[in-house]
């Protein structure tokens, strides 16, 4: 499928995704990913996933060598996957009792975690010796979450890790 007519048809199909209900978008996610979407996933991400898969189907998806390289990177960066979790939950969740150092090893320096809290967007960058937020380095995500909320929080849970 190529050319301006095909591109217009694809644009229309993508625009039509806005008319789908959440259950229909969840069904598309299940078909594309082979599992339920993560709990609490926003409609916007369901829409973007559906749009990407439409584009991949019509324009061609990732090439085999790119897929292999991505799988290799995932295996290298996320060595611990909790296979016992139910289908549809994120396989990369933080395990109870996981140390901040282990979490930092999973989150490579340069990774940015974003969370909106009470109308303000908070960006935390993973650095070699911790987590950088508003110009200050913290040893743990929980310390960052505590600073943001003023209450005791699990940092990984607060940031969706």
List the helices and strands and how they pair.
Elements: H1 3-16, H2 22-33, H3 43-59, H4 64-77, H5 100-106, E1 112-117, E2 120-127, E3 130-133, E4 136-138, H6 141-149, H7 155-158
Antiparallel strand pairs: 1-2, 2-3, 3-4
Shape: extended
Gap between N and C termini, in Å? 39 Å
Compute the number of helices. 7
Query: What is the total tally of β strands?
Result: 4
Percentage of residues in DSSP E strands: 5-15%
Helix content: 40-55%
How are the strands ordered across the major sheet? 1-2-3-4
What letter string, H or E per element, gives the SSE order?
HHHHHEEEEHH
Low-pLDDT windows of residues: 81-96
Structural class category: alpha+beta
The total tally of domains equals 2
Cα gyration radius (Å): 19 Å
Chain-averaged pLDDT: 80
Largest sheet: 4 strands, antiparallel
Task: Summarize the structure in words.
This protein is of the alpha+beta class and 161 residues long. The protein folds into two domains: 1-93, no CATH class; 100-158, no CATH class. The protein is 48% helix and 13% strand. The chain has seven helices and four strands, in the order αααααββββαα. The chain has helices spanning 3-16, 22-33, 43-59, 64-77, 100-106, 141-149, 155-158, and strands spanning 112-117, 120-127, 130-133, 136-138. The protein has a four-stranded antiparallel β-sheet. A hairpin with a 2-residue loop joins strand 3 and strand 4 (136-138). Helix 2 crosses helix 3. The protein is extended and about 55 Å long. It starts with a helix and ends with a helix. Residues 81-96 have low confidence and may be disordered. It comes from Oceanibacterium hippocampi. InterPro entries: DUF2924 (IPR021322). This is DUF2924 domain-containing protein. Pfam families: DUF2924.
